[in-house]
Design brief:
The complex is a heterodimer of chains A (about 70) and B (about 250).
Chain A: H1 4-8, E1 17-18, E2 25-26, E3 32-42, E4 45-58, H2 60-67
Antiparallel strand pairs in A: 1-2, 3-4
Chain B: H1 4-33, H2 52-73, H3 83-91, H4 97-122, H5 125-128, H6 143-166, H7 175-194, H8 200-212, H9 222-244
The chains are: A alpha+beta (about 70), B mainly alpha (about 250).
Amino acid sequence: MKCYICAQMGKDSEAVAVCIVCGMGLCMDHAIREEVDIWEGGYPFPSEKLEKTIPRILCPPCYEGLKE
Amino acid sequence: MVSLTKKMLAEFLGTFMLVFFGAGAAAITLMISAGQATTTEFNIGIGILGGLGDWLAIGLAFGFAITASIYAFGRVSGAHINPAVTIALWAIKKFPSRDVIPYILAQLAGAGVASFLFAASVGMDAVTIGGLGATAPFPGIGYLQAILVESIGTFLLMIAIMGVAIDRKATPGFAGLIIGLTVAGIITTIGNITGASINPARTFGPYLGVFVLGGENLWELFPIYIIGPIVGAVLAAALYIYMSTETAT
C-alpha cells in the first residue's frame, strides 16, 4: 500500500500505517499517533483513568477533525 | 483518580436528591390526603387518592431521583447513595475499607440536609402532617416483621445491582434505569408495610428533621431500617457472588 497524501503530491512512498477513521494509507511522515485515555469503572464504582493509553493512528485531516 | 472529597460530595448530592424528591413525595401525598376519611386501619393516608397507585407514584419519584443520581454521579463516586449498598460492596471486597465511613457520613449528611430543606421549602405542615416522609411500620406490623420486610426489599435491590451493574457480562448503560424502576416496584409493594426505606440514610434524614423541628421522636424504630437493609443487601451480594462463580467440571 502507498501513502495517499504523498500520492496526491505526486510522490511514491510506502504506507506504514492506516488511519483508523478513514482507512487512508500513511507513510511515517503523515501518520499521527494519538494516545487515547482508558477509563475503567462506573456505577457502582468510581471511574478511574488507567495509567496505560491506547494508541490511535490518524491521518492529518481526521486528526484535525478530531481536535475541532 | 477522583479525590475522596469529590466522591463524598457526589454521595451527598445523590442522597440529597433521593430524600428530597422521594421522601418528599410521601410527605406531599400525606398533605394532599389530610382530613380525608381512611377506609381501613391499614391506611394512614397514602392510598386514599389512588389506592396502590399512590405508592407507585411515590416509588416512581424515588426511582426517577435514583436514576438521575446514578447517571449523574455514577462515574464520580459510584452513586451508592445507600449505606446498605456501600456496606454490601465492602463485604464482598469490591469496595475499599478506608472509604466506607466517609461514604456513609456523606450519605447521612445529604439525607439530613434534604429533609431540612424540604421542610424549609414546604413549611411546618410537611413536618406535622407529612412527617417529612419518615418511615415507620404500618398498623399491625411488628418490629421483627418490619426488619424482615426491609431485608427482603433490600435483597431485591442489591440482587438487581449485582446483576445489572457488578456482573461484567451485564449490558452496559442500563443500570441506572433498571435500578430506579426496581426501587419503584419495591416501594409499590412494601410501602404500606414499613414505608419501604431499603436505605438507612433515607430513613435517617426525615427522622432527624422531624425530631429537630418538633415532630415525633421516631428513633426507637431506626434499628429496623439499619438492620433490615444491611442484612438484605449483604445476603444478596454474597449469594450473587456464589451463584455467578464458575466452577471447573
